[in-house]
Amino acid sequence: MKIIRYTDKYKSQWDDLVSNSRNGTFLHLRNYMDYHSDRFEDCSLMCADEKDRIIAVLPANISGETLYSHQGLTYGGWITDIKAVTATTMLQMWEQMVEFLRSEGVRTLIYKTIPYIYHSYPADEDIYALFRYGGQLYSTLISTAVSLQENRLAFNENATRGIKYALKHGVIIEHTNDYSQYWDLLSSLLFEKYKTKPVHSLAEILLLKKRFPENIKLYVARKEDEIVAGAVIFFTKNVAHAQYIATSEKGRILKALPLLFDYVITNECNMCEYFDFGTSNEDSGRIINDGLIRQKTGMGGRGVAYNTFKIEL
Fold this sequence. Notes:
Elements: E1 2-5, H1 11-19, H2 30-33, E2 41-42, E3 45-48, E4 54-58, E5 60-63, E6 66-69, E7 79-80, H3 87-103, E8 108-112, H4 125-132, E9 136-147, H5 157-168, E10 171-176, H6 179-194, H7 202-211, E11 216-223, E12 226-235, E13 239-247, H8 249-254, H9 256-267, E14 274-279, E15 281-282, E16 287-288, H10 290-297, E17 302-312
Parallel strand pairs: 6-8, 13-14
Antiparallel strand pairs: 1-3, 2-5, 3-4, 4-7, 5-6, 8-17, 9-14, 9-17, 10-11, 11-12, 12-13, 15-16
């Protein structure tokens, strides 16, 4: 078993492993990861077995003496072959990885785990390895996800009233490719409220949409011709994950978001096991947005932890 640093010549092998893994998503494919290669120094790793078969990959970037589970991704630890990697194999991988990283001058590892809702088969061996190698919990973000199984929680009374109000006042929901208009709304709201801008520029989200047309979709709420709310949804094997949720003042008055999410969950998530509203934190989880939590739990969501660990090598 050996650790190999990723280069472009391994692209097809990397993508094959991710596509057939038990815990990888389209975010871990190189055509997604590499769109922001100018922002990060890639230091992704691969693990090959004794027959030189790639059995696991780790999306990562390096800064100074620290290796990060890729900072451009929401989640992403070791992505593993469903048959080849057991708890014993994972410990062997970590032994080789630690030795490799030390030889490369890396002194600290910041490691993001992949939340269980994104697993197509159980894949928590890396969490056990973190324990064995002295990993310390570095941050926890709390997301809010709806189970789409038979025991799905219904929208609460406030959300249900909001849906009826929006319908009564002529709000309609549609899937659209009008990212330009929506990005104008999103950008202005983010700047007004947080003095920030979307992580993805309009050009970047359009590029990713072109590369992954079935995985990235925009849904908006309109009042006549005006977009008053919306969300970009990332569809993975098991999860529909909401990104870039925004609503204008008119959208808030019209209660457009409950109607939008009811539409998406009811009509667009038939192949998914979970709908993930995303995290509701600032400052690496130390601050929680109570208003967002109330809104998301009111639509049937409950907590899923996005954990990051730190190991001194």
